Amino acid sequence: MITVVLVDDHQVVRQGLRALLEAEPDIAVIGEAGDGLAAVQLVERLKPDVLVLDLILPDLSGLEVARRVCRAGGATRVAILSMRASEAYVSEALGHGAAAYVLKSSSAADLVRAVRAVHAGQQYLSPPLSAQAIATYTQRAQDSSLDPYELLTPREREVLHLSIQGLSNTEIAARLRISPHTAMTHRSNLMGKLGIHTQADLLRFGLQRGLLPLDD
To answer: pLDDT, tens digit, for every residue of 88-122?
Structure first.
């Protein structure tokens, strides 16, 4: 039996995905989450075979969730389910460790195939995506210098994601259960590491990295 955790910030979408996947005799949905932080905690607790993950989530983006889950060293593999078909998003997802990228406009059969493929240790890109995205990511990784995002600590990434969503230091502190001063320090440190100086720079960085799309 393939165990699955679903992560999407729309409950009606999760309900539909659960019904679709549980109609298959070899797939069981064992958990759901509606935001990035809850998703990471749920995967740590349930250790599913496959995490089906939307890109755009509150608190942490799907890209950061994928990164954390894949780098944790467990057996859970990540399948991204997104409405965004650009090669840039696909390459970012693959770069963060995702094994599959399925478009929300795809058929139900595509998602089922993706879940089975990643569980079997394979990669899966739904049409009209192609292996070109994998090649693009591989070439970019070979050509690029160290990504400054990789220099951020896990807590700094949390503060970054909440900052680009427009939360103040006080609001971030309440969400992460830290002091406002600590939140301010993390924000200052991450901005220094990224070489950015203003909230506008933070928003621009979020847009460029797919952490804060122009539309949802």
So the answer is: 778 788 888 899 999 988 889 999 999 999 999 99
Identify the CA nearest to 52 among candidates 92, 95, 91, 16: 16
Domains of the chain and any CATH numbers: 2-143 (3.40.50.2300), 148-208 (1.10.10.10)
